[in-house]
Design a protein that fits this description.
The chain is of the alpha+beta class and about 475 residues long. The chain has ten helices and ten strands. The strands form four sheets. It has a four-stranded antiparallel beta sheet, covered by helices on one side. It is rod-shaped and about 180 Å long.
Length: about 475
């Protein structure tokens, strides 16, 4: 949680600084999105929890140390804790103990549990990375969509400006009666259509920005612009082959690593469950002492002669027999003397042998094996899906590259056709229909080229994504 709070504290001034400059970069958008995305934050918390469980599993191999204390008050007939005999007076009793124990052997369950939790933690880290990568790819897509729509808006404005120039020229010629009125009305209709296209393009830009801000999970600010990317560097054919990309993805792709670690964790879980079938040997040691307010110690006072019940006959006279008697005074033993005198220590080895427990442990083993089989299936399916995804992504990239190349040639050809049509129309040789037909064809081809350019950039980023590369 400290890491999450710290990341927010770092991102917030970063965002304010960027907003003041009025521009956001792709890297800033990605970092802001990662710092605010719920799935990423929850995956991070899961990884932190798994790390704690892994560290605790390692600490479980250490001896424990526990202290205990107790106090007891008795009234009436009770057992004297000092003499272990019945008494009828009020008494107080307290005890203190300190004990430690360590498991020496339990079928290697503790060691395997450490390894299991270690693999679980590694899987959580890879799942977190996968969440970040997925979000990064989504932000890149949204970012490119904004740039794409901005380019289309620029193109729409250029188209409208060109149409406006023709409209202004024809309006003057129409007043002079030098052209057919239909030519002016055709251009006027085209001019209105271009204005609508600008409105649609502006709406598309703002909508794409809102989508980007949604991925970043921050309030939308229409005054913040995006830094342009140099997409001309992506006009060359992607170098790697599908087989090479898949081979790299098998080693680098976070999702594959995550399912692989999960399978290894499940394998260790089976060994942990099997450890429950073995005897458990524990070593325990402890020290204990106690105190009782009825505990007394006799103190010698003197020796006196006392008459006994025996006698001797002196003739017919009974003479009593006297004996020596030691006299003592019972003095209560002090608190700390009792604690010192009553202290005792002990060491023990405890062996627990599982004989029958309603088949619980064997069923735990079966469940662990079932979970392992499920993880194996998930890992196998993930690898198969990855192979298909790489192949499809490569096909999409190749198609996008070819489409971009062809559209470049189409735009060049239509640009030349439009230049010729414009010359003919301006000189009065051509008509508005032929002019607008070529112009609209060029406009459509230019828009398609813009889409193809950013589509190819995105397809290359998808392949980089599968290779586990940095995406910005």
């Amino acid at each position: 949680m400290k890491k999450i709070v710290l990341s927010h504290l770092l991102i917030i001034p970063f965002l304010f600084s960027s907003a003041q400059e009025g521009k956001l970069t792709l890297q800033q958008c990605i970092e802001i999105g990662i710092a605010n995305n719920l799935d990423v934050l929850q995956s991070d918390l899961q990884a932190q929890g798994d790390e704690v469980r892994w560290k605790q599993a390692k600490l479980n191999r250490l001896p424990d140390l526990n202290a205990s204390a107790g106090y007891q008050f008795n009234a009436g007939r009770s057992i004297d804790q000092f003499t272990n005999s019945y008494i009828t007076e009020n008494n107080q009793y307290s005890y203190y103990s300190l004990g430690s124990g360590v498991t020496i052997f339990n079928g290697f369950a503790l060691q395997n549990l450490v390894k299991q939790n270690k693999f679980t933690y590694e899987a959580s880290k890879m799942t977190l990375q996968q969440q970040k990568d997925n979000l990064t790819l989504s932000i890149i897509l949204a970012y490119l969509q904004v740039l794409n729509n901005e380019d289309q808006l620029v193109q729409a404005r250029n188209q409208m400006e060109l149409t406006k120039q023709q409209f202004d020229r024809l309006e003057i010629l129409n007043k002079e009666g030098a052209i057919k009125p239909s030519d002016l009305s055709d251009i006027k209709g085209q001019y209105a259509g271009d204005q609508v296209n600008i409105i649609n393009a502006q709406t598309a830009v703002e909508t794409a920005k809102i989508s980007l801000y949604e991925f970043m999970n921050v309030p939308y600010d229409k005054n913040v612009a995006l830094e342009r990317l140099d997409v001309t560097s992506f006009t060359e054919m992607y170098a790697d082959t599908p087989d090479k990309i898949y081979e790299t993805a098998m080693q680098q792709f976070a999702q594959i690593k995550a399912v692989n670690y999960s399978t290894q964790s499940a394998e260790k879980a089976v060994k942990v469950a099997k450890g429950g079938l073995f005897p458990v040997l524990d070593l325990n040691a402890g020290v204990r002492t106690n105190y009782s307010n009825t505990a007394t110690s006799p103190i010698f006072l003197n020796t006196t002669d006392v008459q006994s019940s025996d006698y001797v006959l002196l003739g017919t006279t009974q003479s009593p027999v006297y004996k020596k008697q030691n006299n003592y005074l019972n003095e209560k033993i002090s608190y700390f003397d009792q604690l010192n005198n009553n202290r005792n220590q002990g060491v023990s080895f405890d062996l627990r042998i599982p004989i029958f427990n309603s088949f619980q442990q064997r069923n735990r083993i079966k469940l662990a094996k079932i979970d392992l089989k499920n993880n194996v299936l998930v890992e196998k399916t993930a690898k198969t899906q990855l192979q298909r995804a790489v192949e499809q992504a490569y096909i999409n990239m190749t198609a996008a590259f070819d489409r971009h190349k062809i559209l470049l040639e189409q735009v060049d050809a239509l640009t030349e056709s439009f230049r010729a049509a414009e010359i003919r129309f301006n000189s009065g040789v051509g008509n508005s229909y032929d002019y607008l037909l070529v112009k609209n064809s060029l406009d459509r081809a230019t828009i398609n080229l813009i889409n193809a350019k950013y589509d190819y950039v995105l397809r290359t980023k998808v392949l980089d994504f599968y290779k586990g590369m940095k995406l910005w």
